[in-house]
């Protein structure tokens, strides 16, 4: 029999039998029916609560379209729920001037980076500008994605405030933001230029082969150094910033450095080149040429010191000095240096009444050596004689090549009798020494000592007279001024 031919009672009976034959069907049916009622009630309750909230409640889709528009939202913005729902917030309440900012805030909400509380200028239906405070809450799904946003909105522009005053305030705010934006852009540009200049300064500083030190006069600490200073002295820049210039100058105290820096400040910012000594981290020292000048930076007096290692130059200068005062062949002092030393020694004797003696000796028959063996052998003899003398003089004595085969020894703090003893000892050493190719040679020696009112000229002249007498009376002997008979000895 077909269902349409069955009576109502028969159909109800079959439905009852079917429910009994399916376990749990009744319970599932009732539960599904109750869930539908709960959803309907929740929607009613949500709508009711939205209308009761004192702030405007607006719900949005992720593409910023309205899904819920409360009565307070209609009151603030003037759009009805029917007009607002489904519309884009950009077209509805965001003024053209604020759309770029609104897009960025919406992006922050969807990415959960921010935008939860904002104050912004919005537009009502009638075109009125409103200042609104927004509290935004993203709706986050179980997988962490944002599926929508709820916003609580309050009009904080003041309902009793005249439209003209509000517009003026908003316009001033827009101008203020604009001016501040321009000022910030300028400030950023100034900072960028300052950073570029700082990088340029640092590059110039570190490209210099000289050591450059910047010192704060008030603290007497380094505020910067260049790479060359770090490399040459062995400190890191961080270590230098804990130090001051007195830490690298072995002969300077802090007080001394303060005095020198103040002199720089008093001298219109610069002093001439000076020579000093710097000390490395390992304790070794080296000479430097130093130029200092001052600059003002941030209200501080900064002393800029540029130091150049002059070790090689000093070695070269010492060589030049040695060449200018030393006989090239024998390495004895030359006559020019003799005059410098004797002027100083005579003055010392006059001040302190100390004894001073000199001796002058000549190699006997040296011309015959040159004629017999040649000048090369003669030069070897002169060098050997010089070496022998250096082995026998004291460190305080001065050994001079007077000219040709004549030599002078200056003997400070020595009386005449002691000088005679030394001269005789030297004569014997010469006579006993066996010289290459020549064998034995002898010397004649004249000795004199300082007398009152002597000059270096009179002192050497008396020694030369004594030498002349030694040569005239047989050679290979020592004659002193005491041995001279002024009436009988001819002048040299």
UniProtKB/TrEMBL annotation:
Matches recorded under Pfam families: GGDEF, PAS, PAS_9
Matches recorded under InterPro entries: Diguanylate_Cyclase, GGDEF_dom, Nucleotide_cyclase, PAC, PAS, PAS-assoc_C, PAS-like_dom_sf, PAS_fold
PROSITE patterns assigned: GGDEF, PAC, PAS
Keyword set includes Coiled coil: yes
Gene Ontology cellular-component annotations: plasma membrane
SMART domains cross-referenced by the UniProt entry: GGDEF (SM00267), PAC (SM00086), PAS (SM00091)
Limits of the PAS domain: 197-241
Domain PAC: 112-168, 267-322
Coiled-coil positions: 1-28
Positions of the GGDEF domain: 354-483
GO biological process, one term: negative regulation of bacterial-type flagellum-dependent cell motility
CDD domains reported for this sequence: GGDEF (cd01949), PAS (cd00130)
Keyword ATP-binding: no
Family matches, as Gene3D superfamilies: 3.30.70.270, PAS domain
GO molecular function terms noted in the UniProt entry: diguanylate cyclase activity
Protein keywords: Coiled coil
PANTHER family: DIGUANYLATE CYCLASE (PTHR45138:SF26), REGULATORY COMPONENTS OF SENSORY TRANSDUCTION SYSTEM (PTHR45138)
NCBIfam families, A to Z: GGDEF, sensory_box
Name of the featured protein: Diguanylate cyclase/phosphodiesterase (GGDEF & EAL domains) with PAS/PAC sensor(S)
Source organism of the structure: hydrothermal vent metagenome
The organism's taxonomic lineage, starting at the top: unclassified sequences, metagenomes, ecological metagenomes
